[in-house]
Amino acid sequence: MLQASGRATAGCTTRWAAVRRCSALTWCISGGAGPARSGRIAAPRHRPRAALPCDPEPQPRPAASGRRPRPRQRTSQLTLAGLLGCWKDCPVLISVPELRRKLGQSGLVVIDARAPVGEPARGHAKYREGHIPGARWLSWDEALHARDPHTPGRLPEAERIRGALAACGVGEGDSIVAYDDNQQFTAAQLVWILHTYGFRRVHRLDGGWPCWTALGGAVEHGEPAVEPRTGPALPAHASESSRAEIDHVRALINEGAPILDCRRDSSWCEDPYLIPTAQRLPVRLLLDDNGLFLPPSRRLRIAQEAGALADRTTLVYCGASISAAAVWLGLTEAGWEDVRLYDGGLPEWTSLGHPVQANTRPS
Question: Which of 4, 36, 174, 256 is the most buried (most CB within 10 A)?
Fold first, then answer.
């Protein structure tokens, strides 16, 4: 948890200088939205500890004469087009300093996604007590939470999402920055939901509301009036590239694919069992002491230590698609190619009578 101390402030501020150059470049070039592209430059296949597109250029060795030769031209992997192809279509974390600079820009909608599960009224009260200036409150349980209590994390229908965003004043072509309380990662879940429907102009505030207040971000009180808009155009059917349903989960288990249980420690203690072959990877392991995501190379290494494989589909799940969405975002944004969220989660798995197993290794 972030503390409003000099250490927390320094940690929140300095960590962004090197880690977020690539996402900041993409945002600045695209204006948060950017035109649609007819094709996509595929991101390079990432391996644990491999170089990432936004890594600094390695310095060449000095020539024998002692003079340093001119750096060679970067390959197409690191050209501007390569950067856009690798990052623009990925969920992007945005820092507090970045968001501060962009508040009030046309086409940017900030969404307060703080929503304690099962307590929508409490989330609304938190919003009225204080929020990022201009942010709109998203009525999470009413608009986006699954209607089936047996599968609370199920992906909602496209029309429900569009209606909820329209009520927040999101129009066609707008970009979204969502934030949560950094405990229940509902903003990460919103990113996953929209990404699954092909909407890429969505970002999560790294560190969430605690980091914003720790760094002295302005706070607005009350509930300003919001003019409803049309909402973003979303396809009727979701993509399967970031989602897994029960049949796919069974197939992945049979193939020996990596499966990660991402439930919070409190949820794990209440029900200390796993889907067979799964290993624990709670999102806290991907965060630093200030609640910010670790650098990409460390996230990928931690995922590998938990059993994920760079050349295999990695399945993540939890109980309501919130903690798993945060792990999905953290790994995907770090460059892991094929991470899919099982939105039925453990509730659906057990309700169908499938077996579970005890945890075999500490987390």
Answer: 174
Q: What share of the chain is helix, strand, coil (3-state, %, to 5)?
A: 35, 10, 50
Q: What's the CA angle centered on 175, arms 144 and 233, to 5 degrees?
A: 60
Residue 25's H or E segment, with its range, is helix 21-30
Which tens digits make up the pLDDT trace of 146-189?
A: 667 778 889 999 999 999 999 999 999 999 999 999 999 999 99
The CATH fold of domain 1-29+80-239: Oxidized Rhodanese; domain 1 (3.40.250)
Count Cβ atoms below 10 Å from residue 309 Cβ, excluding itself.
16
The residues, ordered by sequence, that sit 6+ positions from 312 with a Cβ below 8 Å of its Cβ are: 257, 258, 338
CATH architecture of structural domain 243-358: 3-Layer(aba) Sandwich (3.40)
* Dihedral angle sign, alpha carbons of residues 132, 134, 137, 138: negative
Residue in this structure with the two tokens 């790994």, named with its chain if needed:
331
Indicate the domain borders of the chain: 1-29+80-239, 243-358
Give pLDDT, residue 52: 34
Where on the phi/psi map is residue 156: left (φ > 0), alpha (ψ -120 to 50), or beta? beta
* 98's tokens: 């970045």
For the ranges 23-32, 114-123, 158-167, which has the lowest average pLDDT? 23-32
- The whole-angstrom separation of Cα 54 and Cα 18 is 9
Q: Are 99 and 72 contacting, i.e. CB atoms less than 8 angstroms apart?
A: no
- The pair phi, psi for residue 137, each rounded to 5°, is -85, 135
Q: Label the pairing between strands 108-112 and 175-179.
A: parallel
Number of Cα atoms under 13 Å in the Cβ half of residue 311: 0
Q: Tell me: the pLDDT tens digits for 215-246? A: 999 999 999 999 999 899 899 889 889 999 99
Specify whether the backbone of 352 is left (phi greater than 0), alpha (psi in -120 to 50) or beta. Answer: alpha
